[in-house]
Amino acid sequence: MRLGMGLVGAGFVGPHHIDAVRRLGFVDVVAIAGSSEASARAKADALGVPKAYGSFEALVADPSVHVVHNATPNYLHARVSAAAIAAGKHIVSDKPLAMSASEALALLGQAERAGVVHAVTFNYRGNPLVQQARHAIDGGEIGKPHFVHGSYLQDWLLFDTDYSWRLEPDKGGASSALGDVGSHWCDLAEHMTGLRIVEVLADITTTIPIRRKPLESPGQKPETFQGAAEVASTPVDVKVEDLASVLLRFDNGARGSFSVGQVCAGHKNDLRIEVCGSAASLAWRQEQQNELWIGRRDRASAVLQKDPSLLDRAVRPYAHLPGGHQESWADAFCNVMRDIYGVIAAGKGMSNLPPAFASFADGYRANCLVDAMLESARRGSVWTPCRP
Ligand SMILES: NC(=O)c1ccc[n+]([C@@H]2O[C@H](COP(=O)([O-])OP(=O)(O)OC[C@H]3O[C@@H](n4cnc5c(N)ncnc54)[C@H](O)[C@@H]3O)[C@@H](O)[C@H]2O)c1
Known about the structure:
Layout: E1 3-8, H1 14-22, E2 27-33, H2 37-47, E3 51-53, H3 56-60, E4 67-70, H4 74-86, E5 90-93, H5 101-114, E6 118-120, H6 128-138, E7 145-153, H7 169-172, H8 177-193, E8 197-205, E9 210-214, E10 233-237, E11 243-250, E12 255-261, E13 270-277, E14 281-285, E15 291-295, E16 302-305, H9 329-346, H10 360-378, E17 384-385
Parallel strand pairs: 1-2, 1-4, 2-3, 4-5, 5-6, 7-12
Antiparallel strand pairs: 7-13, 8-11, 8-17, 9-10, 11-12, 13-14, 14-15, 15-16
The site of nicotinamide-adenine-dinucleotide (NAD) has 23 residues, from helix 4.
C-alpha cells in the first residue's frame, strides 16, 4: 500500500522531511501547507508537490494525506499535531514536541486515545554509529557506564544581528538553546545508554541580551539558517538562554554533564557525546559522524570507521553505503523516517517500535527534562528532580 504524506511548514527542515520520505519508495508527498496559499504554492512548485494549502486545517482534512509532518515553528506544534490527530492522521512532529511538558503530555494522551502512530524526529538516533554505540553499551562492551558527557554547540546566533523566532518565548518557548538542541542531546544520551536522567543542575545565561531584529517586509520572512541579511532592524531584549551547562545524575548512579551554546564560533552543528564505562569509553561527534572512538586503558584506543561489514548485524540496516563512502545528516534523517514508516505500514499501531523510532512519549520526556533544567536555573542552580 502506498502512503500519502502532507507537510506543514516548509522552511529549513521541512524539505528534508520530503527528501527523506521520497527515498523510502512507497510514500507519495501529496501536499504542503504554508502560512499562506501563495507561499505554500511556491514551495510546492519548487519541490514538485501537487497540492498546496494556505492552512494546516485544510491539509489535515485531505483524504489523500495519511501522515502529517509538522515542521512549523514550536508555538504551532501543539495546534497542528492536535488537528492532525483529531482527523485520524498519523503524525510525525519535529522536536521539541511542544512548548512545555504539560502541552506535550496532552498531545501524547490524545494520540494514544486516537490510536494513531505518533513520532518525534530525534534524528541523531538514525546514525549507524549511534546505533552501534547503543548496541555495544547494551551488550556490556564498555562495562557499567559511570560518566556521560558532551556538548551541542553552534555559532549561528553569535552576532547581535543574528535573529530567529527561536529567541521569542511566545514562538520558541521558554528556552532557546536547551529546548532547541539540548533536547536532542538528552534524547541521545538516554537512547545510547538506556539510562534515565533523574536529576539536573543547570546554569544558564543569555550572552547577547539585546539583539537587532530585522523589520519584516511582506514575503521576506527569514527562514532558519538563511544568514543575516543587511536589512533594517530594531533592538529587542532577549530573555531566553543562548548558553547553558548542566550537571546530570542518572538512574544507575552515573554522573554526567553537557553544555549547549548557539554563540560558539566555529561550531556549526557540533553535537558530541561520550560514555565512559568501567571497561571502556565510546565517543561520537556529529560533525565527524562516520567515526566512533573507542577508548581503552589496557590496550590501544581505536577509531571504528563506519563500514557495514564491521557493524553489528542488528545495526547494519542503518548503514546504506560501503566503508569509505561517507553517510551524513540527511541519511540519518532518512533512517528515522524508514523506522517510522515501517511502523505505519505494518498497521499494528505503536507496538514493536524499532530503535530509531522516537514516540510522543520520548518527546514528552525531553520536554520534562528541559522544564526541570529551567526550574533548576530559576531556583539558583540547585539539583532538581526530573519527572516523570
Ligand atoms: N530535527 C532537527 O534536526 C531539526 C532541525 C531544524 C529544525 N527543527 C524543528 O523544526 C521546526 C521548524 O524549524 P525550521 O528551522 O525549519 O524553521 P523555519 O522558520 O525555517 O521554518 C518554519 C516554516 O513554517 C512556516 N509556517 C509558519 N506558520 C505556519 C502556519 N501557520 N502553517 C504552515 N506553515 C507555517 C514558515 O513560513 C516556515 O516556512 C522547529 O520546531 C524546529 O525545532 C528540527
